[in-house]
Amino acid sequence: MLRISNHYISKVVFSLLFLEVLILIGSFYAGAGLRFFDGEQFAIPKLDHFFMSACIFAAAIVFSMSALGMYQINFQEGLRNPFFLQLMPSFAMGFCILTLVFYLAPDLYFGRGILVLVFMISGTGILLARAMFMKTSRTHFLSTRIIFLGGGSMAKECGELAVRETNYRRYDVAGYVAVPSEETCVPQNQLLHLPEGGSLVALANAQRVSEIVVSVQNRRGGAFPIRDLLECKLYGIQVTDASTFFERETYQIRVESLQPSWLVFGGGFDQSFMRTFMKRAVDVVASISLLVLTLPVMLITALAIVIEDGAPIFYSQERVGKDGHVFRVLKFRSMFKNAEKNGTPQWASRNDPRITRVGNIIRKLRIDEVPQILNVLKGEMSFVGPRPERPYFVEQLTERVPYYNVRHSIKPGITGWAQVRYGYGDTVEDALQKLQYDLYYVKNNSLLLDVLVLIDTIKVVMFRGGR
């Protein structure tokens, strides 16, 4: 895994992205050369902004492919995954983006003849690149050989996570090294035994491993081989904590196995002035722009709500924000009037009977969240962050879910990492799963992660996933 701006990115996905950017830019030049081929030589047109146009074309297509989930690769599906059926909508979306760009900046326009050839060449190149990556993924070329230090329940969970077929990174598990301080939960045939007088680094070299994952729950006492781990690290073998392994592979922070010291000394949690200033500046500019762009949609939505169920149009509700401060979030009303007649807050379920017909539509399209732009302008929310919860549920979840209040250390968001990664949830267990994604965002929040969340939000809205 690569770590860019505190966010883990699969080397496979990064390599594929880099290759496809080169294919898209190269296809742009190849298409232009073919378009102006005079029978003897390929001629590139002399446009002032030709390279800039090529980069914008590549950015538009990559953005569209990302928004449609084409970089969330499932190695288990392999070549059975219909890339062609995903690529066509991506190109159509990219064409719409390019049309908007050319309208705003006509100097960058390069002609329909070139565009048709570029789409044909780049589409073929991307399909071939995807086929090559899927074929390569079936070999050990992209796999990492690892050992798990520990044989208990945590080691078993780490091992199961490592061999999941949906992982972006492939692992070859050499085995487990049990420690005396915990009960063995892994199969006996997968246990590795240190030879008498041997060392952990010798075992690692004999097994040709490049990483050791420390998955021991109890590290107190003399049974924990801290000196051996230091020796492994000095010999160039990567030593990874189980919490970091979970964070890297699931984009979550697992609260069950979390050591408080890991949160304190593990890095992240950037709350610097520059990060806060940049996030607020982006929120203000984006809020004003979106208010202007979505005004027609908001007017149509308001009219539809009044026609079906009358006034009021908006629904205001108390939510818990940064540092535990309570504010009132504004949404389009999607439920019938007096949806909570007994005064007791209820979890919103997937097929909630309290939702109106208009409410069902605007919820699926996320239009009900648009008025929260006003909360962003007021500084109560951000575009990206943990979803704000109602005080009634916060009290319950704080008592039942460890570290729940950590999510209140930053502003809540209209959309968030948990919403695009986990989906719908209406139980305490769902709240725990979402919290683990929220903790990952709070710890690793950056401009890059915000951009990834917004791109994934487009995919969630288009395919009606998430919450």
TrEMBL record:
<protein>
    <submittedName>
        <fullName>TIGR03013 family PEP-CTERM/XrtA system glycosyltransferase</fullName>
    </submittedName>
</protein>
<feature type="transmembrane region" description="Helical">
    <location>
        <begin position="12"/>
        <end position="30"/>
    </location>
</feature>
<feature type="transmembrane region" description="Helical">
    <location>
        <begin position="109"/>
        <end position="129"/>
    </location>
</feature>
<keyword id="KW-0808">Transferase</keyword>
<comment type="similarity">
    <text>Belongs to the bacterial sugar transferase family.</text>
</comment>
<dbReference type="InterPro" id="IPR003362">
    <property type="entry name" value="Bact_transf"/>
</dbReference>
<feature type="domain" description="Bacterial sugar transferase">
    <location>
        <begin position="279"/>
        <end position="462"/>
    </location>
</feature>
<feature type="transmembrane region" description="Helical">
    <location>
        <begin position="50"/>
        <end position="71"/>
    </location>
</feature>
<dbReference type="InterPro" id="IPR017464">
    <property type="entry name" value="Sugar_tfrase_EpsB_2"/>
</dbReference>
<dbReference type="Pfam" id="PF02397">
    <property type="entry name" value="Bac_transf"/>
</dbReference>
<dbReference type="GO" id="GO:0009242">
    <property type="term" value="P:colanic acid biosynthetic process"/>
</dbReference>
<dbReference type="GO" id="GO:0016020">
    <property type="term" value="C:membrane"/>
</dbReference>
<keyword id="KW-0812">Transmembrane</keyword>
<dbReference type="InterPro" id="IPR017475">
    <property type="entry name" value="EPS_sugar_tfrase"/>
</dbReference>
<feature type="transmembrane region" description="Helical">
    <location>
        <begin position="284"/>
        <end position="307"/>
    </location>
</feature>
<feature type="transmembrane region" description="Helical">
    <location>
        <begin position="83"/>
        <end position="103"/>
    </location>
</feature>
<dbReference type="GO" id="GO:0089702">
    <property type="term" value="F:undecaprenyl-phosphate glucose phosphotransferase activity"/>
</dbReference>
<keyword id="KW-1133">Transmembrane helix</keyword>
<keyword id="KW-0472">Membrane</keyword>
